[in-house]
Amino acid sequence: MRTALVIGAGLIGTSAALSLTSRGVTVHLDDHDLDRARTAASLGAGTDAAPDGPVDLVIVAVPPAHVARAVADAMVRGLGRAYLDVASVKGGPRRELEALLRGTGQDLAAYLGTHPMAGKEKSGPLAATGDLFEGRPWVLTPTRDTDTEALNLALELVSFCRAVPIVMDADAHDRAVALVSHMPHLVSSMVAARLENAEEAAVRLCGPGIRDVTRIAASDPRMWIDILSANPGPVADLLAEVSADLDETVRALRALQSEDETARKEGVGGVEDVLRRGNAGQTRVPGKHGSAPRVYEAVVVLITDQPGQLARIFADAERAGVNIEDVRIEHATGQQAGHVQLMVEPQGVSQLTQALRERGWAVRT
Ligand SMILES: NC(=O)c1ccc[n+]([C@@H]2O[C@H](COP(=O)([O-])OP(=O)(O)OC[C@H]3O[C@@H](n4cnc5c(N)ncnc54)[C@H](O)[C@@H]3O)[C@@H](O)[C@H]2O)c1
Ligand SMILES: O=C(O)C(=O)C[C@]1(C(=O)O)C=C[C@@H](O)C=C1
């Protein structure tokens, strides 16, 4: 691939453009908000000038409700040799596109619906990074009519972004993401909504647990209305299952308040059941690079809010010969201090702890 056109220079479009540009592809950036295309270009994601002929690949990265129209317009104008979109839902936009192309003389052969399973709760080009898709699954939904050229160009894009291609049927994809993305998003919003009118004294105590559960609740509601509107059935079915678990758990907790010992025992059983099923499900969440989950242990280091602290910790860990697999930073509420959790292989814990303590860090394991 030598040339690409990204329509929608937001988080996903600009991230893909950054990856392609770094691999030598000439990327043209288009957005109905010209400032966004200009911002993406200033970040090194490509040029906001229009291409002077058809590009190899047109990447449509606009909100799901606008995808079919944007792809159809690009196809009718002959902007590329192949076209793909990156929307979070696949069945609806494809059917909509089919309807829009009817009678235009265009068919769907040069189009491929795709979905990178990577993202952020932030939107826009300023949130984009060139490594956003590294090691993440990128779903491709070809049909038997898809051109080999379109599929190969999509595979090249996935490879340039260092993502992992996964081929799926569009409707099967939508059922799968209802489970692993859309239903969890709503549950996160519902948990976060409890905080809206909560007392400040309670909110000040927020720790890592609630941060993990509510991060995605900060996402743009307009984008998520589009996503959920295109996949309502599967998401509603899953939320009904969550709702049944909620009812059971409320019943079990009420039983724990009972004076009657048998009822209390049943309550413990009910609570234990949901916690154990949660453990079992959580172990199935894949780890880094889509591999089987690995168990890391946390070495927690206290830092103060001064420049260069993280760089010093990493340098000290490297000197100790311990590989850091993942990092989380917890800022202490209302203080100029925080904790850095360094996730390492269990056998590296004592070596790293000792090395960091020797270099003056306050460490908790
Ligand atoms: N945010 C995520 O985590 C994530 C992850 C994977 C896939 N996606 C999908 O990627 C797509 C883009 O999402 P995003 O997070 O980058 O959103 P974003 O809001 O950051 O970017 C979307 C961009 O599209 C532009 N736009 C809207 N309509 C347009 C049109 N008709 N023509 C040209 N430009 C138009 C907007 O101005 C905006 O700059 C969506 O379809 C979304 O479902 C998002
Ligand atoms: O990490 C996040 O912020 C996301 O929500 C990313 C996430 C997800 O994993 O659910 C959200 C929607 C996209 O379609 C793909 C990825």
Automatic annotation (TrEMBL):
Keywords: Amino-acid biosynthesis, Aromatic amino acid biosynthesis, Coiled coil, NAD, Oxidoreductase, Tyrosine biosynthesis. It comes from the Bacteria. Residues 2-286 form the Prephenate/arogenate dehydrogenase domain. Residues 239-266 form a coiled coil. Residues 298-365 form the ACT domain. Pathway: Amino-acid biosynthesis; L-tyrosine biosynthesis; (4-hydroxyphenyl)pyruvate from prephenate (NAD(+) route): step 1/1. One of its GO terms (molecular function) is prephenate dehydrogenase (NAD+) activity. Pfam families: PDH_C (PF20463), PDH_N (PF02153). It catalyses: prephenate + NAD(+) = 3-(4-hydroxyphenyl)pyruvate + CO2 + NADH. Signal peptide: none annotated. Its EC number is 1.3.1.12. Belongs to the prephenate/arogenate dehydrogenase family. This is Prephenate dehydrogenase. It comes from Streptomyces fragilis.
